[in-house]
């Protein structure tokens, strides 16, 4: 017997909330691009609920905008913005090139045309998350009454602590402060996938910071996925602050990262392999930046 499904298409976030309020938690789910949900339903990992609340028509969640908040310039990326649009949008290509790189490496173009940035983050497994973490991204949620703001990092940590129990809030947009590019700045994104094309990554790493011509590292932000949740490597960041690059510093950074990065073995890679891979990727990015600086280089983004 084919079970009847009801598909709701609210025009605004309040309407989406009201629909959800009339249903039990197991009777509905929000759908953005539906690409992740489909894999879960098809693999039998999740049951398709009887009500699907599509968020695709909510205009305010489909836009990339620049805005001012307390005198600071920010980019707001609506949760319904597709990965394909992130790759094309001029504000993102100008200020967030590692995000462009991360999106470009997700799945095939046909998936990227419908998969959204909000869905990518909400799964907690999305490849874009480390990029947002190193930019201290804030998530803005509609809670039924108002928009509330939460740091992405805080949301991930709380979610893990409560056993990944979600609430009903709707992710409206993701906000990042704009930093004007300058010479000593560096950014990077790297992804290591499995052998098959278009499968989920094993690990992704992202970083940004500054390195002057003497090789002194400042304001470095590092993050990696591949563990239970993607996380910042705050201790490593702190230990690198104001240190001058040398082969010894890179060796120390390697140990710091392998100690701090939390992961676990899975059917495709052991814990030790993933730790070594994350440390290697980050240290080689710092090394390349150091080498580039000696030759008078600047901002770079390296592909995997
Ligand atoms: C062949 C294939 C390859 C893939 N490869 C990759 C890859 O390499 N890297 C990668 O990161 N991902 C990959 N994915 C997974 C997926 O396509 C992406 O993560 C995508 O960005 C998810 O977005 P979506 O809009 O399709 O999310 P959906 O499937 O619509 O939703 C995902 C989850 O988020 C919830 N949700 C969505 N929007 C909101 C919102 N605004 N508020 C609250 N909850 C919300 C949904 O209820 C659901 O639980 C792949 C998928 C496929 C099918």
From TrEMBL:
User: What Gene Ontology molecular function terms does this protein carry?
Assistant: FAD binding; oxidoreductase activity
The answer, when asked if Cell cycle is one of the entry's keywords, is: no
InterPro entries named in the record: CO_DH_flav_C, CO_DH_flav_C_dom_sf, Diverse_Substr_Oxidored, FAD-bd_PCMH, FAD-bd_PCMH-like_sf, FAD-bd_PCMH_sub2, Mopterin_DH_FAD-bd
Instruction: Please list the residue ranges annotated as the FAD-binding PCMH-type domain.
Output: 1-181
Which domain of life does this protein belong to?
Answer: Bacteria
Alphabetical UniProt keywords: FAD, Flavoprotein, Oxidoreductase
What protein am I looking at?
FAD-binding PCMH-type domain-containing protein
Instruction: Give the species.
Output: Halalkalibacter okhensis
């Amino acid at each position: 017997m084919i079970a009847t499904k009801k598909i709701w298409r609210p025009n605004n976030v309040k309407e989406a909330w009201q629909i959800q309020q009339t249903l039990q938690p197991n009777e509905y789910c929000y759908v953005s691009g539906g690409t992740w949900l489909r894999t879960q339903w098809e693999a039998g990992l999740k049951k398709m609920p009887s009500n699907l609340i599509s968020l695709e028509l909510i205009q305010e969640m489909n836009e990339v905008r620049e805005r001012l908040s307390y005198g600071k310039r920010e980019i707001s990326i609506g949760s319904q913005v597709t990965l394909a649009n992130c790759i094309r949008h001029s504000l993102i290509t100008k200020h967030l090139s590692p995000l462009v790189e991360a999106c470009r490496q997700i799945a095939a173009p046909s998936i990227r045309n419908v998969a959204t940035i909000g869905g990518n983050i909400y799964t907690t497994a999305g490849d874009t998350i480390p990029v947002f973490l190193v930019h201290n991204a804030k998530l803005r949620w509609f809670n039924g009454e108002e928009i509330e703001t939460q740091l992405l990092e805080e949301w991930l940590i709380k979610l893990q602590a409560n056993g990944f129990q979600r609430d009903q809030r709707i992710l409206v947009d993701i906000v990042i402060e704009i930093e004007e590019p300058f010479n000593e700045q560096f950014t990077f994104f790297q992804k290591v996938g499995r052998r098959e094309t278009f499968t989920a990554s094993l690990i992704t790493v992202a970083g940004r910071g500054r390195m002057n011509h003497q090789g002194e590292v400042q304001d470095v932000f590092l993050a990696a996925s591949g563990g239970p949740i993607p996380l910042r490597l705050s201790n490593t960041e702190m230990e690198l602050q104001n240190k001058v690059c040398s082969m010894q510093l890179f060796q120390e950074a390697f140990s710091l990262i392998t100690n701090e990065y939390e992961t676990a073995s899975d059917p495709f890679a052991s814990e030790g392999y993933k730790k070594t891979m994350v440390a290697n990727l980050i240290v080689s990015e710092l090394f390349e930046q150091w080498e580039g600086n000696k030759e008078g280089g600047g901002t770079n983004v390296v592909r995997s």
